[in-house]
Amino acid sequence: MGCSSGDPGARTPLNSPYAAGAERENVMYTAFTQRSPKYLDPASSYSVDETPYTYQIYEPLYGYHYLKRPYELVPRTATRIVEPVYLDEAGNVLPPDVPGERVAQSVYDIPIKPGILFQPHPAFAVDESGRDRYRHLKPEDLEGKYAITDFPHTGTRELTADDYVYGIRRLATTRVVSPIYAHMTDYIVGFKEYGDRIRVVDAELRKGLDPTTRDLPWLDFRQYAFEGVEALDKYTLRIRVKGKYPQFKYWLAMTFFAPIPWEADQFYSQPGMAARNLTLNYWPVGTGPYMLTEYRENRRHVLTRNPNFRGEPYPCEGTEEDRAAGLLEDCGKPTPFIDRIVFSIEKESVPLQGKFLQGYYDVPQAERGEYGVAYLVAAGDSQEKAALYAERGLKLPTTVETQNWYMGFNWLDPVVGKGETPEQQERNRKLRQAISIAVDWEEYVTIFENGQAQVAHGPLPPGLLGYKDPPAGANPVVYDIDGEKVTRKPLEVAKRLLAEAGYPEGRNAQTGQPLVLNYDAMGGVSPAARSQFDWLQRQFGKLGIQLEIRSTDYNRFQDKMRRGVAQLFMWGWNADYPDAENFLFLLYGPNGKAKHGGENASNYTNPEFDKLFERMKYLDDGPEKEELIARMVSIVQQDAAWMFGYFPKSGGAYHQWVGNGKPTQMIRNHLQYMKIDPELRARKIAEWNRPVWWPVLLAAALLVLLALPAWRMVRRRDRAVAVQSDRPARSPA
Questions:
Q1: Using a CB cutoff of 8 Å and minimum separation of 24, what contacts does 350-359 make?
Q2: pLDDT for the residue 337
Q3: What are the phi and psi torsion angles at 552 (to 5°)?
Q4: How far is CA 702 from CA 7, 696, 709, 710, 712, in A?
Q5: Cα–Cα distance measured from residue 387 to residue 393, given in angstroms and rounded to the nearest whole number
Q6: Are 461 and 467 contacting, i.e. CB atoms less than 8 angstroms apart?
Q7: Between 372 and 132, whose confidence is greater?
Q8: Are 404 and 429 in contact (CB under 8 A)?
Q9: Does residue 439 surpass a pLDDT of 80?
């Protein structure tokens, strides 16, 4: 798409950071702020700033429906989402509804779509006789080659189940650190033993080599198999999982389970490659909608449409809000819509925001969800900014993310914890309930989150099976529920509970001493933190409770949490996958941080909750699981296990010419679905960046006025010299 020569959009503004006419191309421009992505190798990549690249390049077996909420798992390279076959200890097939405790193995046979091709890459290049061109190079053959684009020949081949087998086996390598390997040894059959075997194999290959060398013999994972992962045929992958673990399907939507072609692994293992940064960390190889074609470290990266991509259709289902926002207009059209995505570094936030408002960035950062929220807050604080954003036509949609922030009570503490006797347990419960009523999270969200968060009534955020909006999901311990009306209970209720707990007016009924509680905070004391601490002390002060702040750096805070010595604390959790289990396990007794090293930071224990959790974690999504979740949420509400805090929002910031933008931190291949209207962008950029000539003309006029007297003086001096030189010389007397 372009503009006619008479259109203002045809003229690139003088202040454009791009080449002339770039704004009229079907290209998305965005930024990154800190550094280039460190790990693009899917075995290692686990950082948010890497996902805009990895999830566009690699294709796990599964993904998520772009528009549906709650999140729905959908196939990517798989033909369907499969149900596992359950086996007992003897290998006999069990019925699908068998209790999870009887399952010895879950067998996933996953069919893969035929005809999927890898991106063009030199690892697949062959000559006229069918021999590979670049997989048996000598170091001198790499002269002048520092990028994949420096290799003139490329090739491709079809994706097969063996590529997934190779990728999963490679998670066990000692040559890269995979953050998921140790976790998967708990689930994939034989994976721990396989990793031990690979460690020995790698040690043999390294014998006699300099320990610091980066040129290591190729570790060919085709030669080393194990029973947990295998290819039944060209298009069928089998994975064996220990016991029953329904959440395993969500891990198959992560790039840890991306396919790795053995040719690429061999190609990058050649001597001299690592020294030139020719590795999967810099130059990934995938089947996804885009491929990396430019990597200028800490400067610029470019994703280009993969010419071999099959063109997955844009989704046709979504919410009514999606329909109203025009997010269903491209139903069924092949994706991706954008030809290239250019990431440029912006080390400072002010230039980034300035270029975004000028139109030179279509979105500020592709992977970040705070920009839309920040613009909404700024518009609420300033009428001038609100008018500017409206004039620019900015789209600032928000969503509540699958993450939470909560204030925890340490269950090991004698005052706010569980308590040793039934009587003490009841008193401590009433104390926690009183505090939960008094601390006004609606006010906290207004002040400290600028209203861009949702107050929590339980541990589960929106978007998950089991979450219910108030009033159905309202916390009856903290709120009064009258039909559709939900209001925080009066402070008098909290004071009555406090007195029943043994602390009337915030004093010990037996000793008369004031009740003093300790809040352990992370991150030190900044002005922003101090204002939060002051607010918290006022909240506890409503009940006459004195709150002491003990703020330390994060390392010291973590140490306190590991030892279970913090009394009150605030912490958050980001979901790895959209399932209630990924939040409820934060309250499961055997996951206690102090005793078991788990993620139950509050060390909460409740035998009934634990039994329900052990049943729930084996259940597939459905009414039975939803009912168990509701019972578990009710238990922790009654126990006041946490002050449930809030669910933060993320927000997109999109220019009016950007289509199909829907903010989410769970779905990472979102760039595949977005689109650009280059013609509209070119017109608006030209309109917003018209050169202002009057300051230049004024400056020129001032220069002329300043120079005129000097010019006149020079003219007078020149004339005087000329007159003097024209006089006749006098003869001597």
A1: 352/31, 352/33, 355/17, 355/31, 356/653, 356/655, 357/388, 357/392, 358/15, 358/685, 358/688, 358/689, 359/23, 359/655, 359/681, 359/684, 359/685, 359/688, 359/689
A2: 98
A3: -135, 175
A4: 34, 10, 12, 13, 16
A5: 10
A6: yes
A7: 132
A8: no
A9: yes
Instruction: Report how far apart, in Å, the C-alpha atoms of 349 and of each of 48, 364, 466 are.
Output: 18, 10, 39
Q: Round the CA-based radius of gyration of the chain to a whole number and report it.
A: 32
Task: Give the 3-state secondary structure of 500-565.
Answer: HCCCHHHECCCCCCECEEEEEEECCCCHHHHHHHHHHHHHHHCCCCEEEEEEECHHHHHHHHHHCC
pLDDT at 392 over 60: yes
Structure tokens at 50: 């890497």
Whether 173 contacts 197, CB under 8 Å: no
CA 392 to chain centre: 27
**CA 518 to CA 499: how far, in whole Å?**
20
Which tokens sit at 152? 């003139």
pLDDT at 3: 40
Q: How large is the average pLDDT for residues 322-345?
A: 97
pLDDT tier for residue 124 given thresholds of 50, 70 and 90: very high
Residue 42's Cα: distance from chain center in Å?
15
From CA 678, how far away is CA 515, in angstroms rounded?
Answer: 64
Q: How far apart are CA 149 and CA 137, in angstroms?
A: 16
* Span 277-290, pLDDT tens digits: 999 999 999 999 99
Rounded distance between C-alpha atoms, residue 7 and residue 26, angstroms: 18
pLDDT in tens, 4-22: 333 544 567 777 888 889 9
| Residue that the structure tokens 């300033």 belong to | 382
| CA neighbor of 435 nearest in space, from 355, 546, 583 | 546
Nearest residue to 30 via CA among 49, 9, 10, 54: 49
Question: Tokens 């071999």 identify what position?
Answer: 308
Residue of 244 and 719 predicted with greater confidence = 244
Rounded-to-integer distance, Cα 56 and Cα 289, Å: 6
List CB contacts of 293: < 8 A, sequence separation 6 or more.
148, 149, 302, 303, 304
pLDDT digits (tens, 9 = 90+) for 722-733: 555 555 544 443
Closest CA to 255 of 71, 109, 63, 49: 63
CA geometry: angle 107, 108, 111, nearest 5 deg: 145
In this structure, the strands spanning 340-345 and 27-32 are parallel
Question: What gap in Å lies between CA 504 and CA 630, rounded to an integer?
Answer: 33
- pTM, whole model, 2 decimals? 0.85
pLDDT tens-place string over residues 41-80: 999 998 889 999 999 999 999 999 999 988 999 999 999 9
Displacement of CA 50 from its chain's centroid (Å): 9
Chain centre to alpha carbon of residue 447: 25
Structure-token pair, residue 106: 């879950």
State the DSSP code for 119. P
Residue pair 148/281 in contact (Cβ under 8 Å)? The answer is no
Give the separation between CA 636 and CA 458, rounded to whole angstroms: 8
Tokens read off for 670: 């979102």
DSSP characters over 675-695: EE-HHHHHHHHHHHT----HH
Largest CA distance in the chain: 140
Three-state SS sequence of 265-309:
HHHHCCCCCHHHCCCCCCCCCCCCCEEEEEEECCCEEEEEECCCC
In order of 109, 471, 643, the CA distances from 468 in angstroms are 34, 8, 18
Does residue 611 register a pLDDT over 80? yes
Work out the average pLDDT over 128-146: 95
